[in-house]
Amino acid sequence: MGADHIAAASDGVTRERNIEAQSAFASTLVVDVEKAAHPKEAPTDRPHTNVYGSTIDTPTSIAGTDAVYAAKAALLNQAMLDMGMGLYQWFLFINTSVGWFLDSFWLMSFTVIAPSSANEAQFFYTDNKEAYLFISLYVGLTTGATAWPWMSDMLGRKWIFTSTLVLMGMGGLVGAGMPSFTGLCVVGFVVGFAVAGNQVVDAMVLLESVPASHQFLVSMQGAMWGLGQLVAAAVGWAFIAEYTCGTGPDEISTGAALSHQSRADHSGSSSSSSQCHYVSNKGWRYVWWTFGCMTLFLYLCRFAFPLRETPKYLLSKRRDAEATQLVKDIAAYSNRKTWLEESSFARIDSTVDASAPESRRQSRTRSLLSSAGAIGLPVLCLLWAITGLTFTLHKTYISKYLTTKGVDAVSATSVTTGYLYSRYLYVALCAIPGPIVVGLLIEAKGLGRKRTGSIIAVLTGLFMFLATVSRSRDALLAFECILSFLQTATMAVLVTYSVEVFAAPFRGFGLGVVGFCWGVFGLIASIITTFEGAVADGAAVWFCGAIWVSMGGAWMAVPETKGRAAA
């Protein structure tokens, strides 16, 4: 038995040495292939840099992947760097940014329609649980954030990229005609399911198609998140203000009307109170009809752009010929040239693959642990979970806490529509620059992804604490604007880091894992705010601030991805 143990240990050491040898050999091979290409078209001797002049590395040894894929990915990254950022990638950046716009657009739509849809007479529930619509939304978000990325590893990025938009658009059109609140909640689930998949897959599509020098664009496209909120609030304001009943401070809600009617019936009075019926409450339906049409229009606009599968996905599926042809097509579309040939990949196959067949297969779970690290992966999941939990909790309970300090609450039933939607617009405007700032910081010398994330986390926690000193609605609005900026900045750096740290063969699986953490804890927050109306002494507010300050330290436990071409 001792001899068997020694033999097994010896085999393990030998395997590790073989893999190290393969990586070294693969590195040499990639250089040889580049030199054997067309030197006039591929000046590989010149190092590539980011916007700040820092050198970009194209590693030939990638944790969690086999040596064959690592060598091919390094070759592909070098070819794309040499080709540069062309017209195709810029158009793709616009397309994926529209995806972020629509995700935020639809999430904001629930905030817009919830008060008036729940107040409608035939939709009315005892205790006015409009939050059931948000619970349905988060169930859909959790399912979509888990399922779509996993499916993208099997079915490809392009199919997911287009189908999620159709679901959102059709969901809006169908939901606007729903005759019951239960039906609207079902549609809310479908829309949430589509939204969660669209955002993550958009990030994957962009990352896997741009040169490493422009990976920061994954963060910057998050600026469209704030723009989506802005447009949704503006469109919603126009319809809700004109075609809604029973939600303003001077209007009678359905609940009050029914209560008055019940008292009149018991007293034998013939007086009747007006209720908010369908005919006078079409505003929220107009909102979703408009949003659905806008979404389907933008979906059709995507056909004007020759969207292709991503080269790294094709490479991860051993479809080398298709990946090579795609790079050539991208170069031709952008009026560029590329030295990449299928024979370059074939040479890697004939050498590295033959030397270590046992290193080609690895479970996806082990791949995740290898890429993000045994500590880094749990920390990344924690960061996503805290993001899903805290922003919803803090937004709800800071308002409840401040009412005990004399600050009047702001809601659809306590303020005018104009005042409420002007606040929505201010908050949305502040969300736009967050991802742009992050896109610049993550490439800066001395910062990178993890330090930028750490700084934003600490600032988020501090401003969650400071919001408690507000003593007026305007002061609270100022803190809401700052936290809106920090929330989109947080999402931008988290999404960018997550898509970079996982390699293409298991990128969807990894994003599905962290997406599940985000969705589940967002659902928990929604359930808490629905059924637990009061938390003593603002405990939820203090918890949210404290946990974000501590996340500043957690960010430092993940491996840095700055300056490395994503595989």
From TrEMBL:
Residues 92-562 form the Major facilitator superfamily (MFS) profile domain. InterPro entries: MFS_dom, MFS_sugar_transport-like, MFS_trans_sf. It comes from the Eukaryota. The keyword Membrane applies. Keywords: Membrane, Sugar transport, Transmembrane, Transmembrane helix, Transport. The chain crosses the membrane at residues 90-111, 131-151, 181-201, 222-240, 286-305, 368-393, 424-442, 454-470, 476-497, 509-528, 540-558. GO terms for cellular component: membrane. The keyword Transmembrane helix applies. GO terms for molecular function: transmembrane transporter activity. Pfam families: Sugar_tr (PF00083). It is found in: Membrane. It is a multi-pass membrane protein. PANTHER family: MAJOR FACILITATOR-TYPE TRANSPORTER HXNZ-RELATED, SYNAPTIC VESICLE GLYCOPROTEIN 2. This is Sugar transporter. It comes from Aspergillus neoniger (strain CBS 115656). The lineage of its organism: Eukaryota, Fungi, Dikarya, Ascomycota, Pezizomycotina.
